[in-house]
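not sure who needs this but someone in the group chat was asking about Carbonic anhydrase from Dermabacter hominis 1368 so here u go. i didnt clean anything up, its just raw.
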Amino acid sequence: MTHTPIDARAALARLREGNARFASGTTRHPNSDEDRRLDLSSGQAPFAAILACADSRVPPEIVFDCGLGDLFVVRSAGQMVENAVLASLEFAVHKLAVPLILVLGHDNCGAVAAAESLMEERASGTSLALLPGHLNALAEQISRRLGSDACQAAVGNPPLSGADAPRDSAAVNAAAAKAEVCARSPLIRAAHESGELALAHAIYTLDTGRVDFGD
């Protein structure tokens, strides 16, 4: 397939423009026809990689009004950064040369809410209400993110764009996930430090459909 290189600035601009269309109800549904599908049968060249929550209400391709082959999307509850997630993002950087990784969180996130409840129980000294299966481990990991002073500072410097941008635990969690991706992957860190790759985080607001971007 043909591929026109795009830098991180242009990738972010494209995401902003697509989200503006989605939030205003003027979506175009680009790159979704038969010609696009056939073109992609020989390869892919996404312009950005997105680490998003698994929440069914936040599908990145729809939120950013993108089509087939535009985004390399990795999803996990609460944007947890596990080995498979890192490997997927490394593939996007090493093999597909994406110029941008965006960590996309959202308000009213169930994983973040579980972590906040866990933190409140610990602070009050009450008995912990264990969640079934692996859910408690997920809440534990996110609670450690939320309790980090470094993560709190990362959210506000610079702040998320927009006067009404969410400044809550969802933003802290997204910023922490972005930091973890860079810290845990030498491959991604090297690409970032060389200027070949940009890292950013953003928060999607469920009722407005708007995405507010951090650094």
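also The chain has nine helices and five strands. if thats useful
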